[in-house]
Design brief:
This protein is an alpha+beta fold and 86 residues long. It contains one helix and three strands. The radius of gyration is 29 Å and the shape is elongated.
């Protein structure tokens, strides 16, 4: 059974109730007897399977990831940096 959270419009008190889906929503505050409304809560999402995380590997036909450098770019950076230091 889900837990629903309510807030009173008059006194502002927040409370929770465990209710069935078929139950009517609470309409009266237990503290002051004022009108209440149901608060909406975010839903937790769990991603399962491949393709959702950065650590998942792509197929070999795909391009390399942005963090990795090819052999050609590393050799050109080394030769460029040694010329500028003289």
């Amino acid at each position: 059974m889900p837990i629903y959270e309510y807030q009173c419009k008059t006194c502002g008190v927040r409370f929770e109730r465990v209710q069935r889906f078929s139950d009517d929503p609470v309409k009266i505050c237990p503290e002051c007897g004022g009108e209440v409304y149901r608060l909406l809560q975010p839903v937790g999402i769990i991603f399962k399977g491949s393709g959702f995380y950065v650590t998942d590997h792509r197929s070999s036909s795909s391009t390399s990831s942005p963090g990795k450098k090819s052999f050609k770019s590393e050799s050109s950076e080394k030769s460029g940096s040694s010329e500028g230091e003289d």
